[in-house]
Amino acid sequence: MKRKIEIIGPKVHGVGYRYFLMNQAMFMGVNGFAAQNQLGKNGQQEVWVIIEGSKGPLDAFSTFAQTKRPDDAEVSDVIIKDFEGFVPRMVDFALILTAGQIVKAIPIIQEIKGHTAETAESLREDRLVRMERDIQAIKARLGMP
After folding, report:
1. 46-62: buried (b, 16+ CB within 10 Å) or exposed (e) per residue?
2. What residues does the Acylphosphatase-like domain cover (predicted)?
3. Is the dihedral of CA 113, 116, 122, 128 positive or negative?
């Protein structure tokens, strides 16, 4: 049995919806799962979910998707319909989703690395200035030029 769930609203992207749904689907015994963000009509955000499994877990997950939301999500409609087509295994989707999040993080990590290098250089320069000042103070106390 397969279903497609469309979650529509002004704010369903960037709130962790796909992870939220995947985690629950896993614990409910859904076998196949995939979710993707879409831009819908009139600029509405949408999350499309396809699931596969036996009737009990799919019914439970469908109810969950209709009634529960991640914090900060704003949902105006949830549409559930039968689905014909390929549904990937849960583990395959989890790997793809994780890889996608890592790719998003790479520029941020590179920026942090750059800032870290700049900060380290600045600290080295500050330390050198303090050391030179301390050396001059010691020389002055010892009467050295």
Report:
1. bbbbbbbbeeebbebbb
2. 2-97
3. negative
CATH architecture of 2-88: 2-Layer Sandwich (3.30)
> Binning pLDDT at 50, 70 and 90, where does residue 113 land?
confident
Q: Is 143 strand, coil or helix?
A: coil
Domain positions in the chain are 2-88, 104-145
Is the pLDDT at 69 greater than 90, yes or no? yes
The residues, any chain, with a CB within 8 Å of residue 13's CB and separated by 6 or more, are 37, 45, 47
pTM: predicted TM-score of the whole model, two decimal places: 0.73
Tokens 């019914």 belong to 59
Q: What is the pLDDT of residue 120?
A: 85
Task: Tell me the C-alpha distance between 35 and 105, whole Å.
Answer: 20
CB within 8 A of 93, min separation 6: which ones? 22, 33, 34, 35
- Quote the CA–CA distance of 120 and 112 in Å, as a whole number: 12
Q: What is the chain's alpha carbon radius of gyration, rounded to the nearest angstrom?
A: 27
